[in-house]
Every structure is written in structure tokens, then in C-alpha cells.
Specification:
Keywords: Carbohydrate metabolism, Glycosidase, Hydrolase, Polysaccharide degradation. It is an enzyme of class 3 (hydrolase). Its EC number is 3.2.1.21. Pfam families: Glyco_hydro_3 (PF00933), Glyco_hydro_3_C (PF01915). This is beta-glucosidase. By secondary structure, the protein is α/β, with parallel strands linked by helices. Among the domains are: 204 residues, Rossmann fold (3-Layer(aba) Sandwich); 140 residues, Galactose-binding domain-like (Jelly Rolls, Sandwich), CATH 2.60.120; 35 residues, no CATH class. 26% of the residues lie in helices and 19% in strands. The chain contains 19 helices and 27 strands. The strands form 6 sheets. Strands 9-24-23-22-10-11 form a 6-stranded mixed sheet, with helices on both faces. Strand 6 and strand 7 form a beta hairpin. Helix 2 packs across helix 11, helix 3 crosses helix 4 and helix 16 packs parallel to helix 17. The radius of gyration is 27 Å and the shape is globular.
């Protein structure tokens, strides 16, 4: 037995190899072993006390405590677009430093899967389509977190976790040499350079028929034997599918807790049936113990705290919103990440005096409500948000007071209809909800809410059982007459009865919602239903609803009964009118800045896009503005991965700004105006297809309508730009593409024994700038 395990009982060892709860490992207070608090994610450390409305796309809440904010850095694709190890290290260090305020001992990041297909919902969490760029920048990020701040990291998700559709059941079919050369390479780069990295997380998917979490060849042969890694190997959340097989394969930790598989009772049965040996338990427990002991040392050295279960009341999360170094680093990274895709006639940088600019119009919701990050476990509640509108307006007021600034929305960018307006549609009256056992008229709990929705998916009041009904009656009033929309979403089912003088006739709507827990968590729009009703203005619409959670939810969360529902309401409107108003304003302006975006509702863990078009009517908006202001239209796009740009030839300039984090507005402002010489210097870390069907993975990606389980990596070594080169296909933008405000000349390249030396990089333009020399 490992010396670290001496004195531990079998029960205590088994407790070590499964989580305590959603974010903590198990402590053993008897011998002074603390728990490790773990937290997402790649763009900032969320902690446990954030409201899950900042984690998921649905109004859930964990504890009812005031949400704790986090530092939100630019997303990983933005970081990769810098092609700069020093900036990647700054990001890892800053995120880890902020994580200390949440007593986080291990970050569940970085994500080092590859961007095989731009439709993957988690592309923004990954770095690049290229394994070398991914490995090198992620390694720098890891060094920033672990070496500079003493916070452990988790390399995830080994391996082939490049799609979200059916992620618990998908089976990646890939040749062994392709797996080793391409998809395992980023992990290998980091492990060989830094063999003491905190942990490796196994993917949800299977590889060639075997789940990653029980894949002995991956864990014992590749990770342990070939790479020599002796650290912790853990499951993704609910990603342990086979108990005995995962223990024999070398999976050390099942997450989250309480254990689903690794209970003392289950382990005793496996031992009695000789399906495992006690050494399998000892090996896993020893690695977990060594990780905890290392964390104790790092905590003491780097000034953060670990706690045992008996000390949990001392584990209080805080935030550091005034960290000026964090703000400065986030702005620097976000500015360097901006990729200048197009710049006709030197439309950028904007120089009001030189260009005789008197009037600037900003168009698009993302100018005022920017997309900070993608959705799912990477989503965060920011310390603050600097919007592009605020930053640009402040810059012009301070430096070019003669320039006027106007903003117009242009079009809505949202995945579903909004909540009813509290003061207008609900007249400011609270809605009383009552909890009942099914079939009983006697309530056993009452709550008042301001909106017709319930936030009880992972917290809130816990019902006596899943045999529950939540009932409410309330009135709504529309300000206009027309075909208005009502939407329903629920984990379970809803009965909705509409009546009153606002309707010509009563309506009963029986809605059957989601019953799969992860699907509800990460894709609440999947079962969204919307109906239109002719509603008369200023007349009462009476709403009676009855909600029931699923009796037998699939993949239920431990420790409670999940319940959630939402009713949305939107009055009919002319959607073309704000587009025409934006175009008219652009025609009168000297410069039109159009801000487009995807955002957390469209790029998210748990979902894949079916196409890569900008959502809603944004393409229509850009086209209208470009027609009204030819050669004066600049598009600033915020997305985590590629989007199509059918208007690309019609606009003067295009700036790709990614999900830029909480300081995104200042980063974009710096790039547009070249403030202090900080023009855009980013280069694309992935190839952008002109036509999605040109992409190597198109036919073998779940949302293309192929096999429901098998995902075939038939492109082999021809990933990303290599496919386009080999097939002679012209993409919209090449991997590595990015323009500058100046001109560089690279001279005297020498090549000896596959080693290339660049002797001179000369800026021959009239402006400062940064250049990335790429050698293929």
C-alpha cells in the first residue's frame, strides 16, 4: 500500500475516489485531508455561489445567496488568435489569481480538444484547429495558473470530444495514427513539458467503441506508459459509465458526487465478485491523496486556503472586481486577439481628423450588450462589463469632441421570445405560486415571484417528492392589439389555460417538456414551443398554469428534485422597421459600425449549431447598412468560431473580435482607433469556410444528419486548412489570416536540418504593429 494511504480504511479510500458534491472532492477530517474545490473554466473561475442563470441559458439558481462575480477573460479562440505564449500565460495567471478569491484549488480548464468543425458548441472553449498552436498556447496558460499562482489545472477532454450532440453516447471512429498525431498531440505536448500538471479529464464520448472513462489503452498505455504521467485522471461530470472497467482502466476520480458508481456498497460487490482488486482502489486513492497533499503545499506557498468538511462554514467566496492588473491584461489580450479580416482603402484605423469624421453610428445589439463568452460551464457572472458603445463614446468625447455618436439596435439577437415586461404586461404585480402534492388542493408551500418562471432546477425550495404540482394564476395586458407570441419551456410538463376579454375564445395548451437532465441544463431551447394568439390591447388576459416535474427524470441530479419552467411573452412588431431605420441612419453618417454576434445562447456546451450563419436577421441588417453606406460600413463580429459572411464583398472593413470578456468594449475601441499604437494583430486560429459543405468534417458531423452515434474522422490527417490545400478549395478566410495597419517585410530565412531561422522582421509601414511569422 502507498505510504500516503496508511491508516485509511477501505471506506475512506473509496470516499476519496468519488466527489463529495458538484464542485468538491471528499475530505477525510479524521486524518486532516481537506477537500479540493474545483470550478470551471477556461475564461474565468465561476466558483460555487454564482447564479446559474450565468451558467445556463435558463433561470436556475444554486443557493439563493447573492451571486459572486468573476474576472471574465477573452475566450480561448481569442487567446489562440494572439499566437502569443506570453499573453496565454498572463491569461492563465490572471484567471487563477481571481480563482483564489473563491478558494478554488483546481480549475477545470484548459479545453484542448481541436476545432474540427465550426458548428461544435464548445469551439470557443478550445484554441485552434491546429494541434501545435493548441498545445503551445495551452501549455503557457497552464504555466501561468500552476507555476505563477499555484492553482492546479485540468487538461480536458481526452480525447475526440469535438462535438456536443449526443455527447454521452457518441462514438468517434478514428485511425490510431491520426488519433496520436493530431487529437492526442496537444495533451502530449503539455504532459511532456510539464509532467506534474494537476489532472486530466476524460471525455464523455467513446473512442472506437470504448468510453474514454474506461479506455484502458488510452489511460494505462498512452497516458501512463507512453507519456509517463502519474497524476490524477478523472471523469467529466456524469461521465463514468462502467464501474469495474473504469477502475481497472485507471480512472482515479468519479465526478460529481455523491457517487453514482463508486459507493462503498458497489465497490464491496466488485471486490467480492473479483471484478476488481483492492490495488485498483489503492492506486486511485493514492493519486488522489498525492494531489491533495500537493494542493496543501501550493495553498500554503501561494496564499489560499483549503478546508475540511468540518470547516466548510469558513469556505466563503469573495470577488476582486477592482483588480487593475486583471483589467489591463484582459484589455491587452482582447486587443491583440482582434483579427483584421478586411480593410479596403485603409478605412481603419478610424482617425476622425484625417478622415473628416463628424458623425458615427453604431448599429446592433452587441454594441450595447456584448457577447462576453459562450454558454454552458464556461459562462460567468462578470465583475463588470465595458461595452463597445461606452468605450467608443468615451474615447470620442475625450479626444474628438466634434464627433457625434448614435446607437440603433437594428434587429433583435435572442434565441427565444423574452420575459413579459413586469411593469407593462404584468402591471408590476407579483405572481403567487403554490406547491401541491399531485391531486391535492391544499398547498404545502407558497412563494411570490415577479415573473412566470421558477428557478428551482439546482436549488431553491425542495419539494417533498417529484409527485409535485406548482400552480399559479395571474393577469397580463398587452399594449397593442395583434398576433402576439407566448412561449413555454419546462423540465417536465405545463398545463396552460388562457381566458379573459383579451381573447376571442378560451384556450387550453398542454405542453410536454424536457425529461433529460443534461439536455435541460445545456439546451433548454430544445423543447421550446411558441404559439401566437390574437390578443386585444388593454384588455385582461387571465393565465392559469399548472406545472409538473418529470416523474422519472433521465440522468437525474443527486440530492433533490429538479423543477424549472418559464413562460415568455412578446407583442407583435414590424421586424423590418428597425433594420430600415438603421440603414437610414448609416446613410447620413460618415462611418457605420455594425456589431454582430452569436453569444452564449447560440454557441454553448451541450449543443451544436446546425449551420454557421449569424443568428436572427443580422445578415439582413449588415446587407441593408452596407447598401446604404457603401465603403463606409465596418463590421465588428463577436463569435467563438467561424460564421458565414455573405455580405463580405459589400463592406469596407471586417474586424473579428471573438468573445472578448468583460473588457471587450475597450479592446475593440483600441483596435478600431489604434489607441496608443494598439492596432489589431491577431491571426485566425482556424479556417473559415465560405460554404460549410466545403469543410472536411461536414459529412461526418452530427448536425449534418449522419449516423446518430458514430462520428467518423474520415478526413484523417487532412484537418482544417490541410483539407482545403489538398483539395484546392478556397475558404472564406485561411488559417493564419490577419491584416495589419502597417506593412512588414521578413528577410533572410535560413533552413538547416528542418530548423528555420528568421533573421529580420522589418516594419516598413508608417505605423507601429505586431507581426506573427508563420512557417509551414
Amino acid at each position: 500500500m502507498d505510504d500516503d494511504l496508511k491508516g485509511l480504511s477501505l471506506e475512506e479510500k473509496v470516499a476519496l475516489i468519488a466527489g463529495k458534491d458538484f464542485n468538491r472532492t471528499t475530505s477525510i477530517p479524521r486524518v486532516g485531508v481537506p477537500y479540493l474545490k474545483v470550478s470551471d473554466g477556461p475564461s474565468g473561475v465561476r466558483g460555487m455561489e454564482t447564479g446559474l442563470e450565468h451558467f445556463l441559458g435558463f433561470p436556475f439558481h444554486v443557493s439563493g445567496k447573492p451571486p459572486v462575480t468573476a474576472a471574465v477573460y477573452p475566450c480561448s479562440t481569442a487567446l489562440a488568435a494572439t499566437w502569443d505564449r506570453s499573453l496565454a500565460r498572463k491569461a492563465g495567471s490572471g484567471i487563477a489569481r481571481d480563482g483564489k478569491t473563491k478558494n478554488c484549488a483546481m480549475i477545470l480548464a484548459p479545453t484542448i480538444n481541436l476545432i474540427r468543425d465550426p458548428r461544435c458548441g464548445r469551439s470557443f472553449e478550445a484554441f485552434s484547429e491546429d494541434p501545435l498552436l493548441t498545445g503551445e498556447l495551452a501549455l503557457a496558460w497552464v504555466r501561468g495558473a500552476e507555476d505563477d499562482q499555484g492553482i492546479l489545472v485540468t487538461l480536458k477532454h481526452l480525447v475526440g470530444n469535438e462535438c456536443e450532440t449526443n455527447r454521452h453516447g457518441s462514438n468517434v471512429i478514428v485511425d490510431k495514427d491520426v488519433l496520436n498525431d493530431v487529437y492526442l498531440r496537444p495533451f502530449e505536448i503539455i504532459i511532456r513539458a510539464k509532467p506534474d500538471v494537476g489532472a486530466i479529464m476524460m471525455g464523455y464520448n467513446s473512442i472506437n467503441g470504448e468510453p474514454c472513462s474506461s479506455h484502458s489503452s488510452l489511460i494505462r498505455d498512452v497516458i501512463r506508459r507512453d507519456w509517463g504521467y502519474e497524476g490524477l485522471v478523472m471523469s467529466d461530470w456524469f461521465g463514468t459509465y462502467k464501474n469495474a472497467e473504469s477502475l481497472r482502466a485507471g480512472l482515479d476520480l468519479e465526478m460529481p458526487g455523491p457517487a453514482n458508481h463508486r459507493t462503498v456498497e458497489n465497490v464491496r460487490k466488485l471486490l467480492a465478485n473479483k471484478e476488481i482488486e483492492e490495488r485498483h482502489i489503492d492506486e486511485a486513492a493514492a493519486r488522489m491523496m498525492r494531489l491533495v497533499l500537493r494542493a496543501k503545499h501550493l495553498a500554503k506557498e501561494h496564499g489560499y486556503k483549503l478546508f475540511t468538511e468540518e470547516e466548510r462554514d469558513k469556505d466563503v467566496e469573495t470577488s476582486a472586481p477592482d483588480d487593475e492588473a486583471m483589467r489591463s491584461d484582459a484589455v491587452e489580450i482582447g486587443t491583440a486577439a482582434c483579427v483584421l479580416l478586411k480593410n479596403e482603402d485603409q478605412l481603419l484605423p478610424l482617425e476622425p481628423e484625417r478622415q473628416h469624421i463628424k458623425r458615427v453610428v453604431l448599429i446592433g445589439e452587441p454594441a450595447r450588450s456584448p457577447a462576453l463568452t459562450g454558454g454552458g460551464s464556461a459562462a460567468l457572472n462578470p465583475h463588470r462589463v465595458v461595452t463597445p458603445l461606452d468605450a467608443i463614446r468615451a474615447h470620442l468625447e475625450q479626444n474628438h469632441a466634434q464627433v457625434s455618436v448614435e446607437w440603433l439596435a437594428g434587429c433583435e439577437v435572442r434565441p427565444c421570445i423574452p420575459d413579459p415586461l413586469i411593469d407593462e404586461h404584468l402591471e408590476g404585480k407579483p405572481i403567487d405560486f403554490t406547491w401541491h402534492d399531485v391531486g391535492s388542493d391544499e398547498p404545502y408551500h407558497k412563494e411570490s415571484q415577479s415573473l412566470p418562471q421558477y428557478r428551482g432546477f439546482l436549488g431553491g425550495f425542495q419539494p417533498r417528492s417529484s409527485a409535485l404540482e406548482i400552480r399559479a394564476e395571474f393577469d397580463m395586458t398587452a399594449s397593442t392589439s395583434g398576433e402576439h407570441s407566448i412561449s413555454l419551456q419546462a423540465f417536465g410538463s405545463l398545463s396552460l389555460h388562457l381566458s379573459g376579454p383579451a381573447l376571442a375564445e378560451d384556450c387550453v395548451w398542454e405542453y410536454d417538456g424536457e425529461s433529460v437532465t443534461p439536455a435541460m441544463m445545456f439546451d433548454p431551447r430544445k423543447r421550446l414551443e411558441t404559439r401566437r394568439f390574437h390578443i386585444t390591447a388593454k384588455r385582461r388576459l387571465h393565465v392559469r398554469l399548472c406545472y409538473r416535474p418529470p416523474a422519472h427524470p433521465i440522468m437525474a441530479l443527486p440530492g433533490g428534485h429538479s423543477a424549472a419552467f418559464r413562460l415568455g411573452f412578446q407583442e407583435a412588431s414590424d421586424e423590418r422597421k428597425p433594420i430600415d431605420e438603421a440603414a437610414a441612419a448609416a446613410a447620413q453618417a460618415d462611418v457605420a459600425l455594425v456589431f454582430t454576434a452569436t453569444g452564449a445562447a447560440f454557441e454553448s456546451e451541450g449543443i451544436d449549431r446546425t449551420d454557421i450563419a449569424l443568428p436572427c436577421r443580422q445578415d439582413e441588417l449588415v446587407a441593408a447598412v452596407a447598401k446604404a453606406a457603401p465603403a463606409r460600413t465596418i463590421v465588428v463580429n463577436a463569435s467563438g468560431s467561424a460564421v458565414t459572411m455573405p455580405w463580405e464583398k459589400d463592406v469596407g472593413a471586417i474586424l473579428q473580435a471573438w468573445f472578448g470578456g468583460q473588457e471587450v468594449g475597450q479592446s475593440i475601441c483600441n483596435a478600431l482607433f489604434a489607441i496608443d499604437g494598439n492596432g489589431p494583430s491577431g491571426r485566425l486560429p482556424m479556417t473559415w469556410p465560405r460554404d460549410l459543405q466545403d469543410h472536411a468534417s461536414f459529412a461526418n458531423f452530427p448536425t449534418s444528419g449522419g449516423h446518430p452515434v458514430d462520428v467518423r474522422y474520415d478526413e484523417g490527417h487532412l484537418y482544417g486548412h490541410r483539407w482545403y490545400e489538398a483539395r484546392g478549395i478556397q475558404p472564406l478566410w485561411w488559417f493564419g489570416h490577419g491584416l495589419s495597419y502597417t506593412t512588414f517585410r521578413v528577410k533572410a530565412l535560413e533552413s538547416v536540418d528542418d530548423t528555420v531561422k528568421v533573421l529580420v522582421v522589418e516594419n516598413i509601414g508608417g505605423r507601429p504593429g505586431r507581426n506573427t511569422v508563420q512557417i509551414y
